[in-house]
Every structure is written in structure tokens, then in C-alpha cells.
Amino acid sequence: NAGVTQTPKFQVLKTGQSMTLQCAQDMNHNSMYWYRQDPGMGLRLIYYSASEGTTDKGEVPNGYNVSRLNKREFSLRLESAAPSQTSVYFCASSESGPRGELFFGEGSRLTVL
Amino acid sequence: AQSVTQPDIHITVSEGASLELRCNYSYGATPYLFWYVQSPGQGLQLLLKYFSGDTLVQGIKGFEAEFKRSQSSFNLRKPSVHWSDAAEYFCAVGARSDYKLSFGAGTTVTVRA
Q: B43 to chain A: which residues are within 8 Å by CB?
């Protein structure tokens, strides 16, 4: 059982380039999330999808877009990468929204030069 | 909006000694409260959670936490730490009305032999 799978695990971009982080879960969860983790700041919510067909902004959505492609997949897109977006990105899913346990992927480390 | 403070950035503890990690939250009503653990290079794993009822909750790996409404705290404890407990620990608070989970900045635990 793979759980939550994120790709790629590592990526280096130049300022202004675009890229998409992919996330897929095989637990039939309704809710999916994208977080970024920066030293000393914990995890901050970028976007979430409470259920298939819906997406909402989190705490730090600027510079990002998301797509809930189907129940399994939730992608995060950086249209024009900036050095401030250098971070580790985590995708997570939950069966029952705010009450539920979040299951995390292993993270994607992104460096923007 | 809810917020979380973890006052201790780094704690060093001897193997076999007890451990207590502090967490203070800000939220107007009774929140959902969580502790997650992150091993190096990994995603986060749920240790325990509090929704309602008994204020002392038991989790995995021998951890427990106590919800104290009067102090707006949810401190994590373990009576006797093992070298494998070396990790980063995150407290998180969720509002019952939405899907946004707010994480603290984390506490790094080092276990010395």
C-alpha cells in the first residue's frame, strides 16, 4: 500500500520557470492538502481540496495554483518560480477532513535559483 | 484564526529519561489538537489527537498528551525515551468549522546515550 506518493522528490529550477508537483493517494480519501515546510516555521497550508471538485486557499497561496484532477490526484503548480518558493513541499490526504488523521507523502524538495 | 506556539526549538534528553514537549494554542472554542512526529527525510506521522472527552489521550510509541483548557495547552509526554524518539515534533490545531490545520514551528528532540 503506497499511501501518498509525490513526484518529483527533488527539483532545481531557475527563477521564472514553471513546474508541477504531482500527488496521488490510494486510500480513497476525500480531502487532500499541499503544505510547505520551511526551517523555524513549521508547515504552512498552501491549498486544500475538501472533496473532489473543490479547492480552496490556505495560509500561503500566492504564486501557486492547484488542480484536483480526480479523487486520487491533487497537483500543485508554480507558474513562475521565485527563490522565496525554495522549500520542502508535502502533500497529505485525510478521510474525514478536519477531524481526520493526515497521511503525508515523503516530500518534494524544491530549490529555485 | 487558530495558531500554535511551541516554545522549545530544541530539547536534548538522555535515553531513559522523561520527555515533555510544550504546546500552546490560540483558538476561541474547543479545537481539534494533534501531535505529529517527523523523522529525518520523512513525512509526518500522527502520534495522537484530541477531539473531546477525556483530557489525557494516549498515542502510539508510548506517548501521551494532556489537554488543559485553562492554560490553552496540549503538552506531549513520554516517561522514558528511546534513541529512536530522536525526531522533530509538531503540534497542530484545527478548527471544527473548516479544513485548515495550523502547525507549530516544531521541536527537535535529540537523544543522547
A: 4, 90, 92, 104-107
Distances (CA, A) of B35 to A35, A54, B27, B64, B104: 16, 27, 17, 10, 10
Residues B22 and B6 sit within 8 Å (Cβ to Cβ):
yes
DSSP code, position A101:
P
SS3 for B85?
Answer: helix
Q: Which DSSP letter does residue A70 get?
A: S
Return d(Cα A103, Cα B34) in angstroms, integer: 13
Residues of chain A in contact with residue B102, where contact means CB-CB under 8 angstroms, are 45, 59
pLDDT digit string (tens) for chain A, length 113 residues: 679 999 999 999 999 999 999 999 999 999 999 999 998 888 999 999 999 999 999 999 999 999 999 999 999 999 999 999 999 999 999 987 777 789 999 999 999 99
The secondary structure of residue A80, as a DSSP letter, is S
Residue of chain A whose alpha carbon sits nearest to that of B90: A42
